[in-house]
Amino acid sequence: MGRDANNNIYPITWAVVNVENKVYCKWFLDILMDDLGGGNGSGLTIISDEHKGLLEVVKERIPEVEHRQCARHIYANFKKKFDGEHYKKLFWAAVNSTTIPQFEEAMDAIKKLNPNTYDHLIEREPKYWSKAFFVEGS
To answer: Which of 65, 80, 93, 123 qualifies as a cystine partner to 41, CB 3.0-4.6 A?
Structure first.
């Protein structure tokens, strides 16, 4: 993902591969960074699923990139364990929170319903998937 002059995020590229692994992740990032003129990722945002191989390669290849996790992927995994409209609404409230107090309010409501849901989401590091933690220039 990239940011334009108005600080809006837009997609740059994606790839389809046979299997998600570190080799393909490195291949993809090497080609991407070559096309973008090299660099360490400063000024770019990558949004991905929680694939650990990609997370490791991103840290190695483009350490300055802003990395975010796809909330849709997190929710798809979340709802396998915690299904229901009430969980869905609270999850998306936490994702779309634009302030930390707003995020904490949504997460407190989740915790009251079921502490396991709260623990599950906190383990996925909200700084990567909730807008409340997206700081301009970080």
So the answer is: 65
By three-state DSSP, how is residue 44 classified?
A: strand
Segments in the chain forming alpha helices (H): 22-35, 52-61, 71-81, 85-96, 100-113, 115-122
| Residue closest to 25 by CA, chosen among 15, 12, 34 | 15
The set of residues, in sequence order, having a beta carbon less than 8 Å from that of 138 and lying 6+ positions away, is: 66
Residue type, 42: S
Nearest to 90 by CA among 78, 48, 134: 78
Residue range 70-111, pLDDT digits in tens:
899 999 999 999 989 999 999 999 999 999 999 999 999 999
User: β-strand 66-69 against 45-48: which pairing, if any?
Assistant: parallel
Kindly report the pTM of this predicted structure: 0.73
Task: Find residue 44's DSSP bridge partners.
Answer: 2
Nearest-angstrom CA–CA distance, 8 and 2: 8
What is the H or E stretch that residue 47 is in?
A: strand 45-48
